[in-house]
Design brief:
Strand content: 5-15%
Strand order of the largest sheet: 1-2
Structural class: alpha+beta
Number of domains: 1
CATH class: Alpha Beta
CATH topology: Alpha-Beta Plaits
Largest sheet: 2 strands, antiparallel
Length: 71
């Protein structure tokens, strides 16, 4: 799961990834994950922010990943 998600998003920490992704690529990613997910063990949560106006990001410690918006 993590390996597949890393093809589309930036790794932040442990199993957390973030980044900008088009609607088409998000749909493609979800279809690919559906084929490999072990529903009795794996969990994937998608957070979508429609606007960055009301979001902020603060990092303490080592900065990891890219500067993209959270999805």
């Amino acid at each position: 799961m993590l390996k597949k998600c890393r093809q589309y998003l930036n790794w932040v920490q442990n199993s957390v990834l973030e980044g900008e992704i088009s609607d088409a690529n998000l749909k493609k990613l979800k279809m690919e994950l559906e084929r490999i997910i072990r529903k009795d063990e794996d969990s994937v949560i998608f957070y979508s922010l429609r606007t960055t106006k009301y979001s902020s990001r603060e990092i303490m410690g080592l900065k990891k990943g890219g500067d993209e918006n959270i999805i």
